[in-house]
Amino acid sequence: MATVIKKPKSRKPKKCPICSNEYLPWSSTQKTCLDWQCGLAFSRQQEAIKSEREIRKQEKLQRDDLRERRERLKGAAEWQKEAQAAFNRYIRWRDYYKPCVSCGGTLQHRGSYTTGSAVDASHYRSRGAASHLKFNVFNVHSACTRCNRQLSGNVVEYRTRLIERIGITLVERIESDNTPRKFTIDYLKRVKAIFTRRARHYEKLRKRQMECAA
Predict the structure, then answer these.
(1) Burial class (CB in 10 A: 0-12, 13-18, 19+), 143
(2) Nearest to 108 by CA among 78, 74, 143
(3) What burial class does residue 52 get, using C-beta atoms within 10 Å of its C-beta: 0-12 exposed, 13-18 middle, 19+ buried?
(4) What average pLDDT does range 187-211 have in this prediction?
(5) Could you give the 3-state DSSP secondary structure of residue 147?
(6) Distance CA 205, CA 135 (A)
């Protein structure tokens, strides 16, 4: 059987990253032209890059360690607040194009809280009356701050539009759900993580929809 002799690959000129002059490399490991000053400068450049990467790596490890220590010191009240904030953010992005669940008015997501035109994550059964439903996605919908704060949820109108939105069966299920629930720190951590991811998903989706509509 005849031996196949491979032709040597032709060398292609490269540009020296230091002096920008073209050169023909003698091997694949040659990174600069043959000028020793370019080789030295390139070597120092690579060492500086490695040093910078190591510094960033160490800084990240320190930040991660600090965050972990801070999280270990958090109490249930802090996790409750963070979980609720993540959940409410998800509700706002989920309902971005929907009207106020109470009055049916157009929601101004960049509105003012002083005029009542901003957006709240409004609980049908309030957190004070039914804290066990605070993370129930059927119990919470976007509403204007006027209805949610000044009109205490505008509950009668809320119920009418909620039935139109999710159906009478789910509304009655929410109204009859009085099963107490205990929100442990581990549970609150999961709530925060889950709804943070969901909020990001809907945020990206809504922004793409806005770009397509523009």
Answers:
(1) buried
(2) 143
(3) exposed
(4) 94
(5) helix
(6) 22
Instruction: Output the six-digit token pair for 116.
Output: 């009542």
Q: Cα–Cα distances in Å, from 91 out to 101, 117, 165?
A: 12, 17, 14
Q: Could you give the CA distance from residue 119 to residue 132 in angstroms, rounded to a whole number?
A: 23
The residue ranges of every structural domain in the chain are 79-213
Give the separation between CA 61 and CA 68, rounded to whole angstroms: 10
Tokens of 80: 């409750």
Token code pair at residue 190: 């999961």
CA distance 14 to 20: 9
Give strand pairing partners of 121. 142
Q: Which residue has the tokens 């609980």?
A: 123
Which parts of the chain fold into alpha helices (H)? 36-73, 76-94, 145, 155-166, 168-176, 185-213
Taking the C-alpha atoms of residue 56 and residue 51, their distance in angstroms, rounded to an integer, is 9
The mean pLDDT of 131-145, rounded to a whole number, is 96
Which pLDDT score is estimated for 6?
A: 53
Cα distances from 205 to residues 97, 120, 131, 200, 209, in angstroms, run 12, 20, 30, 8, 6
How far is 187 from 40, CA to CA, in rounded Å?
Answer: 56
Q: CA end-to-end span of the chain, whole Å?
A: 68
- Whole-model pTM: value is 0.69
Query: Are 38 and 32 spatial neighbours (Cβ–Cβ below 8 Å)?
Result: yes
- Residues with Cβ within 8 Å of 80's Cβ and at least 6 positions away in sequence, in order, are 183, 188
